[in-house]
Structures are given as structure tokens and as C-alpha cells.
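Mods, move this if it's the wrong board.
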Amino acid sequence: MSRSKVPKLLSLIYVHNPFYLISTCLFVYGLKLLFRSGDTSVLFAPGSVAYMEPWGLMTSLAGITVLMAVTAILIVRFGKVWEDARSLLLIVLLMLLAISISFDELITLLSDRDNGRGHLYQMFVAGVLFSVGLAEFLIRGLPIRLNAGYRLPLYGFLTLFFLWPALLLRELTLFDVETTRWLIAAFPLVAGLLTVTLIPAVRKGAAAVANNGTPWNWPLIPWTPFVFIALAVCFRSYSLTMSFDAPLGSRHFWDTTFGLYQLVPFLLAILVVLLEIGLVEKLPKLQRGVMLTAPLLIIPAYPWLVPWSRLPAYTSFTNSVVSDFASPVFLTIIGLALLYARAWRKGVRYGQVGFYAMVFLAGSIGPQAFGSRIWQLQANLSYWPLLVLGVVQLMIAYRRRESTSAFIGMMLLVCAANFSVRDFPQLDTWRAMITLHLAFASMLVIGISFKDDFADTISGVCPPFLSITMFSGIVSLIGRDLGWLAVGYGIGFTAFAFLLGRLLKNHGYLTVAVIHCGLGGMAGIGVGIISFGRVHLPSGTKPVILAVVSFATAVLISMLKSGLSRRIRMWWLLRRRST
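Not the wrong board. C-alpha cells:
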């Protein structure tokens, strides 16, 4: 007789056994109802009509948590039922989070009593000791071999959940409302710093947790509890706002200071850890995934993407963030730039492109930009990102001896100088002239400093670019009625071209110098003719002067035809040899 097939639904229920979670939820729900309604003479402290004694509720929740922890140890020790034990481990973490959230309302009640401050300190200490002690009890009881690199951050998160509310009670800290709001917003940031402390453990590799005492391998152990904690941090960030900065009766229910941008530091820290995992474990898909998904953090960083973005409390606090620090979008882009810089340094694909993109965005989105002004790139454009990118390219050029990188870096610095001149009105009118001169100087330095094909090309371009720079400067000076200065400027640049040609043995500069002399002579003759025509002289004087000049020119040409110049040159050479 064949065995009847078990329905798939029953098989799933049997394998995953959701009844531990169901029983826990029913326990918590029942205790909440039990301790907030019914016979006040039995369930509530004398004189209270809303809550029981806080120690009673905390003890009840702690008892359920201990029951689940002990059950997990027993079913593993005696039955090796690791599938159910994994569910119980997550349930214990869930209960510890529930206890920390229950503290919010309990400590608020205690703070209103005369001797409540002493009880508050006891509750905070008891909560930390209980959560850390129970976690250690579970790890040792199962047993799970987990090194300190993972255990200490785990205990740090549990401590954070229980101790951070102590900073938010104004009855204990005497902080004002504004300071309390800043501390609430800083919770995800502190959680992000704790997340980064996992990096030393990550660098030891998956082999460090290979023999962990469980049937699960990396990444299930050790990352399963940390994934749950990451979700708990996001939820706790919002619950702290509702507990310690709840809207008043005159305010809208959603009018809170919580914004999605407050979670960005924590999410960025997660990406940093994931990138480190991809590097250590040599997982190119994970590396590329981090690189491609990282820019999505800009979306929650945008302050208007919450339903309550137009309500006064949220708008006021976010404006304070922008004015006291910077725009959340700007800060996010700076964080992403650091992430991409780390990836670029490690040779991760898209790292360099991401770094350049983030720095450019940081310069295009002003630090104080908020709301629609964030995307006004023309108004927010700044010079410092170009300066940063230019310095980075020059460092690369120095390390690799690449003229191409040096050229890009120098041109970025020239553009940065062009933008920075806008801040100085007295120099802004000379911006084009300054930019051309800096560009020529950069090309000259590259042509001299490097010896490769690209540098040779730059050296060939420099002489004509020198002419372009000189003539643009002359036009600029003449346009400002500085004619004599333009003449001196042209003579100086021509002499500089001749000097470069002799020093660098570059015939291009010598050719440019000769052309400049010819054009200068023609310009001088033209100016002389015009000036001569404007001079008032006695009748007949001008023709006589022109006749003398014409005669002198004719004699000079005849002398040249007669070989006089050759004889003068030979005489000069003989004289130099004799001396």
C-alpha cells in the first residue's frame, strides 16, 4: 500500500514551524491588553488608570524572551532541530526590540514620579545587562562559535537600543526640545558607525566562521541576525521620533521631524560593509551591485519624498539641518564619493566613474541647496570639485608617469581657476585672458616634463597656442585702451617665444617668433603711416620725408643685392675668431 502524499502547505508548516512566532505575538498582544485594561485594583499601581507598574510589564516580556531562548537551547541540545532554533533566535531579537520600545512609554511614566529618576537608571542598566547577557547565554548554550569581531558589534547594537532613549529624556539630561530632536535624528548615524565596526571581522574572511557549530555556512552565519538588526534600526529610528517628539494635539499626526534622509548614513554604512565583503570574498557581482545601487541613496536623501514634507515641524527641522550642516542630498553625495574612491583604489569596476560623477554632482548641487534649488545646476556650480578632480588626476599622473592624466588634471585645474575668478569682481573682467595663459602654461609644463607621444603632440601644439594666447591678450588690452601696454606685452611674448625656441631647440617657437616680428613690423609701419598722416606739418614737408624714407629703403636693398650683408657677416665671424 503506497503512502499518501503530504500536502505541500502542511509540509511547509512542518518544516518552518511558524507557531513559535505566532505564540510570541499572542503573548505580547495579550500582555499589552492585560496590563492596560481590566481591574485596576489588581493590574495597576495605586492611583494609576492607564499603566501597570513598569517593572511588572518588563518582567513579563523578559520572561517570554527567556522562555524562547531556553527552548532554542533545549531543542538543539536534545533534538538538533536547528531549523526551529533559527526561528527562535530571530524571535529573541524581536522580543529584545519590543522590550526596548516598551521602555519608551514606561520611562516616560516613571519620569513623572517623584522617585522616578532612580528607577529610570535601574531600568536602563537592567535592560542592557539583560539583552547582552541573554545573547551571550544563547551563543554559549547552543553553542555557536562566533568570534569577537561579530559579537561585540551585536552587543553594541543591543546596548544602543536600550541606552539611546536615556539621552532623549529631558528629565534626565535637561536638554531642550531642539537638542532632543537632533539626538533622535543622530540615532541612525550612530548605528552606521557601529555597522562599520564589522569591517575587521569581514577582513578575516568566511573561513573565520567556517566551523561555527551550526549546520549553516557563511553568509547565513553570522549575517542573519545583522540583517534583522538592520531592519530594526530603521523601525527604531521612526519609533524614537513618535515616542519622544510626538505631535501635540494641535499638530497633524504625521507632523514629525523624521525623514528618510536620516536613514542614509546607516544605509551607506551597510554599502561600505557589503563592498568590503565583495572585496575580501572576491565577489565581482556583489562589487558591481554595490557600485550600481549606491546612487539610489540620493532618492531617500531628497527631503521632499515623505508624505509629511510640507508640514511645519518637518520643514523647520530639515531647514535647520541644511543651515547648520548642509543639504541631505549634498552630504549623501559626499559620502558616495568616499565610497567610490575606496572602490576605485581597490580596482573595482565603475569606481573611478562613480567618484568623478559624485564629485561633479557635489559641485553642481550647492551645500545649502534645499527643495527645488537642489537641481538648479547653473546656480549651484562651484569650482572645488574640479579642483579635487584635477589634484587626483595629477597624483595619478605622477604615480604612473602619464602625460594624458597630467593634461586632464591641469585642464581641470584651469577650469577651476576660471570658475573661482567669478568670486573676485576685479579679476572677472580678465577671466578669458587668465584662463588662456594658465592653459598655455599647463601645456608647456606637460611638454617639458613628459617624454611620450602625447607629450610630443602637446609640444607641437604649444607654439601656435602661444600665438593665440598672445593675440587674444593684445586684443583684450587694446579694448581697454591700454595700447602701449599691449605693445610691450606683444614684444615680451615674442621674446619669450624666441627664448623657448633656443632653450628647447624647438623650431616651432622660432618660427612663431619670426612671424610675430614680421607682423609686429607691419603693424608698426601701419601705425606709423596713420600717425604720420595725422601730424600737421608745413606744406611740402611730408612728401620730402617720404622721399627720404623711400631713398633709404632703395639704398638698403641695393646694398643687400651687392652682397654687403654677406661680407659684414664674414667680417664679424673673423673678428670673433681672432678674439
